[in-house]
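Before any further analysis, we paired sequence with structure tokens, yielding the entry below:
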Amino acid sequence: MLEKVTSLICHYERQVAIYREMLDVAREQQRLCIEANLAEEENLEKINLLLSKRQKQMDLIEENQSEVLVIKESLKISLGLEEISGEVLAGYISFSEIGKLLEAERKIINLLQQISTLDSKTQKLFQSGLDRLRRKIEKVQASKRANRAYNPAGQQREGFFIDRSK
């Protein structure tokens, strides 16, 4: 049983490391949205690379979490419990191990909150950048329409071909 708890702690610590990397990516995404001009293809490529990196991290978390669920299920069966938590495990394992487990869970929750906050701000920044880009495109289109209105295309001076067979 102790090895299952140790394995659970290791999986949680791995999740903490992945979430820290994800937090770094979220910070970089926010920095790009603040500093970058979304009309430039290079900046869009950087954002896409960060999104791809983030997706890989989320896949790692999902894989890790499925392993955690297997370990928890095994612990529930071994101990005959309905739920596995630090408090429930306190009667079965040392205080030190409980502390490690609870600390890892606390770190994960804290990182998730930080990532969520950054994502919310980044989404607003990105939307604002898209709105600015949309307004620029609308101005260019309006300018083109005005140019065509004041400077119509030249009249065709060569002959016309009329097909009367149809």
Remarks:
- The mean pLDDT is 84.
- The radius of gyration is 29 Å.
- Residues 107 and 160 are 77 Å apart (CA to CA).
